[in-house]
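Tutorial, part two.
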Amino acid sequence: MHPKDSISDGQPEPPVGTAEPGVGEQPEPEAEPVAVVKRRPRGRTTLIIAAAAVLGLAGGVAAGYRVQADRAPTPPAALSQPGLAYPAKALPAGKEPAPLPASQDRQVRTEGDLRKLILPRPKGWQEDKQFSALTGDGWLGVADYALDFEDEKYMYGSLLEQGLRRVAGTGWRKGEYRSAVVFLVQYHSGAAAAAHAEDQRSYMPGKRGAGNEGAAIKGSAEGRYYLFPAERKAGYLPYYRARAIFSRGDVMADIRVYDTVPISKKDIRTLAERQLERL
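Running the prediction step on this input gives:
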């Protein structure tokens, strides 16, 4: 509400346009009344248009379904295409290729006794009785294999998660201090075996591993072998290590050599290549 206007003499002023006309002046004709047009509410019109659009859309969809239902079914394209068969013509009887012998069929070999695929003990080496006491008959449980890693709990869970099937292993000794172990770790899939091998190789170039990129194993796509720098501690003999890691099919191979004197590349490379040949 606005405030009232002030009045000078306390009397109200005549309203504007109410004064009587002077002499000779004609009164102005009264203005005709203006018709008032009421606007239709916009919301109601909008709802009517929207409802009509929805009904039209529904009717169109129903008509489309009716037209499609009345049409004859269109047969799908043939799944087989000419010219894709191999060989183009069936081989005559007696000309089919013979199945691979067991010595060449990798799956047949790995389905058998995995322990028999471990390379034979090299000349000059003896059985490591301490390792044999751990494995017993050459088989290792998941927990036994995981014990050979720094984080035993994590490794145990990772092996099971990746689908570990079985582990075979053996150990040898040569001279007073040289020893070696060979693990064949078999998974339910070749992808898991390759992943385990790659996981072990991934940290080898760093401080936790050998500190170098290693060297390729002949005949293996990704396999490598590594020589570790000597570990020296006052009052103890130097500690040297070498390791080879590769996979073939569903088997991951892990070979390790330990000694108090340097281990040559030839020593670890020869063991790796011979083991690869058996897989």
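Confidence is low (pLDDT under 50) at residues 1-25. In part three we will examine how such features are distributed along the chain.
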